[in-house]
Amino acid sequence: MSDKQLIERIANGEAEAQLIFYKLHVDMLFVTANRILNNPQVAEDVVHDAILKAFENIQNLKNPLAASGWVRTIARRMAIDQLKKELTFETDEFRDDIQEAEVPEYTDIDLSVIREAMEKLPAGYRAILNLHLLEDMSFDEIAKLLEIKSSTVRSQFARGRIKLITLLNTYHVRQS
User: Fold this and answer.
1) Which CATH code fits 3-86?
2) What's the Rg (C-alpha) of the chain?
3) Domain map of the chain by residue range?
4) Which of 16, 52, 126, 140 is most buried per CB count within 10 Å?
5) Which CATH number applies to 111-175: 2.40.10.10, 2.60.40.380, 1.10.10.10, 3.30.40.10?
6) CA 176, CA 163: separation in Å to the nearest integer?
7) What is the model's pLDDT at position 136?
8) What is the DSSP string of 98-165?
9) pTM confidence score
10) Nearest alpha-carbon partner for 101 in 59, 53, 159, 29
């Protein structure tokens, strides 16, 4: 079945097509939502709601080939909306006195260690690092999504990056 046919069947309310769509996208959507929220139970709820919202608005999808990106955007925005309810940010302007952390070149740190270090970050730092580094969003886009100043995003990114590097350095020292 082509993407176009699948979307047409979903638009017609066919449960089998909805199930196929769900199975195709649920894992990717969960990874996206959980990376932002760092809470598997809430991420599952967001994924469920995002897929329902996609089904309700499937007629707005102009290009069936863009369905994956479209539903991922829905899930990302819903996860960010959920996160906004829980976050507080320091609202000071970006300060030039924040020291730039030297980024060591580790070749022996497993990806799971980086994920673990990210999970230890405060939610605001983690969210901004994820959105900028993994979701490839600009600071201005993040500021608009989170409804905060772009300078606050830059400041939180700089501080989060320093904290992440510090956590990774601690891990590397323990392993040496």
Assistant:
1) 1.10.1740.10
2) 19
3) 3-86, 111-175
4) 126
5) 1.10.10.10
6) 20
7) 87
8) SPPPP----SS--HHHHHHHHHHS-HHHHHHHIIIIIS---HHHHHHHHTS-HHHHHHHHHHHHHHHH
9) 0.65
10) 159
* Statement: residue 37 has pLDDT above 80: yes
Structure tokens at 43: 């991420």
Instruction: Give every CB contact of residue 62 below 8 A, 6+ residues apart in sequence.
Output: none
Over residues 48-67, the pLDDT tens digits come to: 999 999 999 998 888 988 99
Q: Tokens 């829905």 — which residue?
A: 74
Q: Mind listing the pLDDT tens digit for each residue in 97-156?
A: 444 545 556 556 677 888 888 888 888 888 899 889 888 889 999 999 888 889 989 999
Structure tokens, 58: 């499937």
Res 21: pLDDT: 94
Q: What is the 3-state secondary structure (H, E, C) of 145-162?
A: HHCCCHHHHHHHHHHHHH
Other beta carbons within 10 angstroms of residue 38's beta carbon come to 18
The top-scoring range by mean pLDDT among 14-18, 63-67, 91-95 is 14-18
